[in-house]
Amino acid sequence: MAITTRSNATLFVALVISSFVASSASAQSAGSWVDIGRGKVGAGSNAKGMFQFGKSRASSKNGVDFGHGFAVGAGPNGIALSNSVGVGGGPLGAAHNVQLNIGRGGAHVSHGGVVSQGGNRRVISGGQTGTRSSGRVYGGSTSTGFGNRTKTYSKSRTTNFGSAGSYFGSQPTSSNRRIIRTSGRRFRR
Asked: What are the Polar residues biased-composition ranges (predicted)?
């Protein structure tokens, strides 16, 4: 019996589905960041999981600085998304980040932002979210600015299913991250 293209495709789909079902101890995470200063821009992303994707972009043209980082980490326990974007021009700098994690063991959403005016108008914003191998979710965001007038905010909510309630606020992030792609220059403080 000859194997046709249709049966090859069916076999491939069956193997992919079985790999998702077989690995229930997998953990996934996603994180991103932007660092926008005068003529110096940085952006990055990191992801971990069976499926991982990360993309970042940084540019500085005609006095306008732009950075964007995006990451997705997915596995059998859920999906983690992180997105950060920032822009600066003239006396103003602004950045925002958002994280979303939905899985079997819980859910997390966080976002934060910063607007900075005057001085060096440098802004930094980023966040991380993920699911541990135990099924518990975590995440948080951070934003800061270095201008003369700076306003920041950050909100976070994490719910672990099967636990005695919800946790409000940021939880510690894991330092075991895989860098997918980084563009631009990092700043030294």
From this structure: 140-172
> Domain boundaries in the chain?
26-184
Rounded distance between C-alpha atoms, residue 185 and residue 160, angstroms: 37
Which residues share a beta bridge with 189?
none
**Going edge to edge, which strands form the sheet with 106-117?**
51-61, 64-75, 78-89, 92-103, 106-117, 149-160, 166-168
For 27-39, what is each residue's pLDDT tens digit? Answer: 799 999 999 998 8
Contact residues for 27 (Cβ-Cβ < 8 A; gap 6+): 48, 49, 75, 77, 130, 131, 132, 133
User: Residue 70, Cα to own-chain centre: how many angstroms?
Assistant: 6
User: What's the pTM value of the predicted model, to 2 decimals?
Assistant: 0.72
137-145 and 123-131 beta bridge pairing: antiparallel
Summary count for the chain: helices (H), strands (E): 1, 12
CA pair distance 51, 38, nearest whole angstrom:
36
Give, for 5, the enclosing helix (H) or strand (E).
helix 5-22
